[in-house]
Design goal:
With 415 residues, the protein is mainly alpha-helical. 56% of the residues lie in helices and 1% in strands. Residues 148-167 are annotated as: Disordered.
Length: 415
């Protein structure tokens, strides 16, 4: 294909994307920026949340259909919705991502969005309104504690407690995150997971044995599909992250269902409120319980501590254990929260979709239901050898309970 023809087709696609739905266009921009940022999942989730509630309030200030998130005043009469989305999105992008993304890339996306909006007073008013809303939302989150690490002792050599794992023996990631002010929860421990099975118990030993069987790097009893599920859903640094992966899934579902700009603004705000608070809730519980990783249990448990565990001193997990405590699973919490919002928004689990992966480029997977994907995400961490089943199952319940709480209590249609 000739270069100018490729460029023409790309321009047509971009124009069609902007014309169809500006929220989806700007979601694509923030996901791309997040990949470049290499932010860990809780931080990425928090910024996604700030970004999308700003977009929601900018849109809702014009349409007035739903209860606002933060900004209660109405937009100026005649303000253009797409311009408001651009103003809000670009303002938040510059605030949180300009130091990790080439500012020219962000400006190019902004200029292309504005080029698709007719000139006039509606455009000017919409831009100014979106920027104003974004500044209010950014100011509200400025003192939430997300950028204020707290020193402390977060590791322990006590049996059952988390400590750094090989090969990198990395220090804990965001150990203070459980103290960040949440968006919707009444407190950071509002949805704290219940106490896990004690690492001294027979129940824990049985779960560790299952991980040894299905989660080992070598000689595990799992299928090729299960093995590849781990990198498919890994969403490590440099990817969209787990919250962002569900943003990508949601935008494809939104396209398939021809959602309006207003509907998309609400859908993505709800998903990312859930993702932001899922990170706070999960990290609060992780460092409250400070449960060691399966590989540590399998290699270091003594008969005096837990006589039921069958030691596996040579056990190596199918993926490197992340640098934070095991219980509950972050992936399962994030995925359950986002996927449950999608189910509630469309009032059904029966949504078929295909999804790609930053971890396995070019690989596409198809799911017939939302819950099918949710379960696979959680199991991918067990097959990866880094979580026992209780980490996954309890985290999914926490994430779904959090999502129900958010969907039932926030951004509701006005009566």
């Amino acid at each position: 294909m000739r270069p100018f023809l490729r460029l023409a087709l790309l321009t047509c696609f971009l124009s069609a994307s902007l014309a169809a739905n500006s929220v989806i266009y700007w979601n694509e921009q923030v996901v791309s920026a997040t990949r470049l940022s290499r932010n860990p999942p809780p931080l990425a989730g928090l910024h996604y949340g700030t970004y999308h509630v700003a977009i929601f309030d900018a849109v809702n200030g014009i349409t007035g259909t739903y209860e606002p998130w933060l900004v209660k005043e109405a937009a100026p009469a005649g303000a253009d919705v797409d311009a408001a989305v651009a103003g809000a999105a670009y303002t938040v992008l510059k605030e949180y991502w300009s130091n990790v993304t080439n500012p020219r890339v962000l400006k190019k996306a902004y200029d292309e969005a504005l080029a698709a909006i007719p000139e006039g007073s509606a455009k000017v008013a919409g831009l100014a309104w979106g920027e104003k809303v974004a500044r209010v939302v950014i100011a509200d989150r400025a003192d939430s504690g997300w950028n204020k690490p707290m020193p402390g002792q977060y590791t322990s050599q006590e049996p059952g407690k988390w400590r750094e794992t090989p090969p990198g023996f990395r220090p804990p990631v965001l150990p203070f995150w459980g103290r960040v002010r949440p968006f919707t929860m009444k407190s950071q421990d509002h949805f704290r997971a219940p106490p896990p099975n004690s690492p001294e118990s027979k129940a824990y030993a049985e779960e560790a044995a299952f991980v040894a069987k299905v989660g080992a790097r070598d000689g595990a009893e799992r299928s090729e599909y299960e093995t590849l599920s781990t990198p498919f859903w890994s969403d490590d640094l440099g990817t969209a992250t787990p919250p962002g992966h569900w943003n990508v899934i949601a935008q494809d579902i939104a396209r398939d269902r021809n959602l309006s700009t207003e509907e998309c603004a609400r859908l993505f705000a709800l998903i990312n409120l859930a993702g932001a608070d899922a990170g706070v809730s999960c990290w609060e519980a992780k460092f409250f319980y400070s449960t060691w990783r399966p590989e540590t249990a399998l290699r270091e448990t003594t008969p005096e501590y837990n006589p039921h565990i069958e030691l596996a001193p040579d056990f190596i997990p199918n993926m490197a254990s992340p640098a934070f405590p095991s219980y509950p699973s972050g992936h399962s919490t994030f995925s359950a929260a986002a996927s449950r919002i999608i189910e509630r928004f469309f009032d059904t689990d029966d949504i078929s979709f295909t999804v790609t992966s930053d971890g396995l480029p070019g690989v596409v997977r198809h799911f017939d239901t939302i819950s099918e994907a949710r379960w696979e995400v959680g199991m991918s961490r067990v097959w990866g050898g880094i979580h026992v089943m209780q980490d996954n199952i309890i985290a999914q319940k926490v994430g779904m309970d959090l999502a129900d709480y958010i969907f039932d209590g926030f951004l509701r249609p006005r009566e």
